[in-house]
Amino acid sequence: MSGARPYDGGMHIRRARLTDLQTIVEFNALLASESEGVKLDLDRLRAGVATVLQDATRGFYLLAETDAGEPAGQLGLTFEWSDWRNGVFWWLQSVYVRPEYRRKGVLRALYDRILEMSTDHGVCGIRLYVERENRAAQDAYRRLGLEQTVFHMYENDFVIDRRTPEER
Question: Rounded CA gap, 117 and 111, in Å?
Answer without folding.
Answer: 10
